[in-house]
Amino acid sequence: MNFYLTTFIARIALLTCILCVYSTATADQVKLGNVTFGAQEPIEIEIADTAELRTKGLMHRTQLAENQGMLFVYPDEAVRGVWMKNTLLSLDVVFLSADGKIVSILPKLAPCTEEPCPIYTSIKDAGYMLEVNAGFVDRHQLKTGQDLIIEYRHDIPSVNQLPVPSLAH
To answer: What is the span of the domain harbouring residue 77?
Structure first.
């Protein structure tokens, strides 16, 4: 009996180790892409296309280069909300339709310093949300109705395997 119990426990321990390694490798995989605003140079974006990545977002980051941002990819279009809990950087938030058009902009959102943190929402339905450094929208003269070109690979596996529509124009 002890032999079977020991073998069972050893198999469970091995399976747990394999799952931990797989989970860490999958969760830490960063998808990158580019967003281009008209004739301007593209910025590099990290893709947050799973519930886990969208929840974490840019929390606890102490810096974000001027030419970088994070694109939140959603499986549908809806009014989107964002809060600045545990976000250490001031951000501009740009909401985009499924076809890459700016539908709403929240400029210069400050980090939340006390609970409860307010939730800021898009004015219209959005399938994407782009976070960049505060002041980016003004410096690059982004406006509601403007088209953006978003490019990233959709074929890299995600933790949740959410469907992602193509935005290449």
So the answer is: 31-152
pLDDT in tens, 68-118: 999 999 999 999 999 999 999 999 999 999 999 999 999 999 999 999 999
DSSP state, residue 57: T
The pTM of this model reads 0.75
In a domain, 2, yes or no: no
Return the ∠ at Cα 40 (arms to 50 and 107), rounded to 5°.
60
Total domains in the chain come to 1
| CA 139, chain centre distance (Å) | 22
d(CA 104, CA 158): 27
* Token pair belonging to 62: 């102490």
Cα–Cα dist 66/82, whole Å: 21
